[in-house]
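INFO batch 0412 | record 1 of 1 | parsing
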Amino acid sequence: MTTTQTATFGGGCFWCVEAAFEEVPGVRDVTSGYAAGHVEDPTYEQVCTGETGHAEVVQIEYDPDEVAYSDLLKVFFTVHDPTTLNRQGPDVGSQYRSIICTHDEEQQRIAEEYIEELDAEDAYEDDVVTEVEALETFYRAEEKHQNYYEKNPGDAYCTFNADPKIEKVRQKFATQ
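INFO prediction complete | emitting tokens
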């Protein structure tokens, strides 16, 4: 029996990031939530104020025999813009910042090295501003936010913002 591992990423609205990671082979489960803030057990409404310090994140349970953490990083950096501070598309505020919440020193090392490589290769026009920090606590978002894209396929926000991310993942990673 394979033991799964966990990765936690924030790259804007968790609905869109969750939907994109659901497409990745080897990903077993994706949970939307909040991390990296100072308020205990925050609500969506509290996080949306930008005053809790939390970012909207997704926690990914994956099979490391099928997909490596480094591959998840590649997906993460494909489905969001890691060069915009506190903004992803139409969403503005620290709750939408680009962040990697690591679960151990190995993830921390891999994430930091990957960001250094991206900057050294000039992978983007601007420098990567993605934060990398150890995960202290993950708070699961309210049930209405779980599998939001799947439950609301006609939602205009998702059609405009999630569909392009999902398509990128399907084209670039689904066959790997």
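INFO post-check: Residues 113 and 173 are 21 Å apart (CA to CA).
INFO record closed
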